[in-house]
Amino acid sequence: MKRRKFVFLSIAGGLATVTPFCRSPKPTLSALNNPQFLSTICDVPTIRKIGADYRATNPAEDRESRLSDLLTADLDANKDRTEQITGKIRADFAAGRTVTLEGWVISLTEARQCALNSIQMP
């Protein structure tokens, strides 16, 4: 085996062993767990409190997978998620699908975003 090939394979093998451990253990904010409008007027503890209250009043939705499924229902994978979520929020208000939590009247979609945030970003 040539030296160049040996060095290349050694480096590639080392990277292959280390790479799975390089992921950030902290989840990041996304369109699903970041209620855009609320995050401009509320601080992070308030958003998490809203989410925790929603989860307490809706135990059937107190799982990360369930909330993600509800938030991504009817979303087109080829379009911007943030815009689609904003559209869902507008539709919620138009249809009267709102909840009152922590003194805020918010859409069902926003409540679910807060709930997902409170699970993923404790």
Task: Describe it.
With 122 residues, the chain is mainly alpha-helical. Helix content is 60%, strand content 7%. It is built from six helices and two strands, in the order αααααββα. It has helices at residues 3-18, 36-41, 44-57, 64-72, 81-95, 108-120; strands at residues 98-101, 104-107. The protein has a two-stranded antiparallel ribbon with strand order 1-2. Helix 3 (44-57) crosses helix 6 (108-120). The model has no long low-confidence stretch (mean pLDDT 86).
Write a brief structural summary:
With 122 residues, the protein is mainly alpha-helical.
Keywords for this structure?
2 strands; mainly alpha; 122 residues
What is the strand and helix layout of this fold?
Layout: H1 3-18, H2 36-41, H3 44-57, H4 64-72, H5 81-95, E1 98-101, E2 104-107, H6 108-120
Antiparallel strand pairs: 1-2
Mean pLDDT, as a whole number? 86
Helix content bin: 55-70%
Oligomer: single chain
* Major pleated sheet: 2 strands, antiparallel
Radius of gyration: 20 Å
Count of runs of 4 or more consecutive helical residues: 6
What structural class results from the helix and strand content?
Answer: mainly alpha
The number of E-state strands comes to 2
Strand content: 5-15%
Spatial shape: elongated
How many separate domains make up the residues? 1
Order of helices and strands: HHHHHEEH
Major sheet strand order: 1-2
Distance between the first and last residues' Cα: 51 Å
* Low-confidence segments: none
